[in-house]
Every structure is written in structure tokens, then in C-alpha cells.
Amino acid sequence: VIPGAFAQRIKNSKNPENFSINLYTGASTGDELDGVLARTGRLKLKIPYQSHPDLRKLINNGKLNFIDMHLSHVSRYIREGIFPSIDVAIIEACDVTSDGRIYLTNSSGMSSTYLALAKDIYIELNEAHPLEMKGLHDIYLPELHTGRPINIDYVDDRI
User: Fold this and answer.
1) 1 to each of 50, 61, 69, 87, how far by Cα in Å?
2) Which helix (H) or strand (E) holds 7?
3) Closest residue by Cα to residue 45 from 67, 30, 28
């Protein structure tokens, strides 16, 4: 829903050329994100994965910069300032509590980095995911360059 609203805002703008989107995702995403934003013509950079035909066309025609890299490196590169900063994060959740807890759905890999660094955050509440997902994720964002082990010794340990 939110990416479509952004695309519509660009379309309705008097100066759509003023919009520029660097799109960082986790793994594969669908038409509701990649396709919708690709068709705005305002994507400038896509990291780290693409699987959408509209993106491929832009990349192959030299109209979209694309960095094909392993997802495990993206968080560190963003946190170290190697990639441009994050203005807006769109995070999918199955629940948000009154004390500010965000319970993620299936896509959690990059969410902690995006939540920590984005200037503005939009939470898209996806009620199609069951509330039983709450507590599924145990998220840890390690400090950079410490080499310290994560304090987990047993399968039922939590961070």
C-alpha cells in the first residue's frame, strides 16, 4: 500500500523530476514494491537484489544503477556510510503496540538496520499475518568491528 502511495505522489507531483529513489531491500520483493517504483522512472539505485522485469529493463538500459551483492554485507555497508543514507524506511509488521514495539512479519533481515538509520519510518500493518508471529524474531544488531561473539550458547537462548 505505502509504495503505491509514494508512486502516486510522484505521478501527481508538478515536478516529478525532483524525486530520486535509492531502493534498499532485503531479498526478493514483488510488483507492489519493485514494479510500482520502477514504473515511476525515479529509481536511481537498487541494492542488493532484483528479480522484477521492470527493474531488469532499467538496469540493462543503463537507467538504474544496481549493486548485486550478498545481503549479509548490506547492513554493514549502510552503517559504515559506504552507501547513501536512508531517508525513508517502510517496514512490514503484524502488530504494533502502544509502547512502540514493532512485531515484524516474514521480512526481518534488514529491518533493524533500516529502523535504526532511517530519518522517517512508515510501518505497514499487514493483518494477513497472524499475531502468533509475535516473538518469532530475536533481532540483534551487532556493533561494527568488534568481533565479539553473540551471547547464545543453547538453542532456546534469547538475545
Assistant:
1) 20, 28, 27, 18
2) helix 2-12
3) 67
- The CB density around residue 80, as the number of other CB atoms within 10 Å, is 10
Q: What is the pTM (predicted TM-score) of this model?
A: 0.84
Q: Using one digit for the tens of pLDDT, what is the confidence trace for 33-82?
A: 999 999 999 999 999 999 999 999 999 999 999 999 999 899 999 999 99
User: Which residue in 36, 24, 32, 107 sits closest to 65, CA to CA?
Assistant: 24
What is the C-alpha to C-alpha distance for residues 103 and 144, in angstroms, rounded to an integer? 25
Pairing label, strands 88-96, 102-104:
antiparallel
| 71 close to 110: Cβ distance less than 8 angstroms | yes
How far is residue 70 CA from its own chain's centroid? 15
- Give yes or no for a contact between 60 and 70, defined as CB atoms under 8 angstroms apart: no
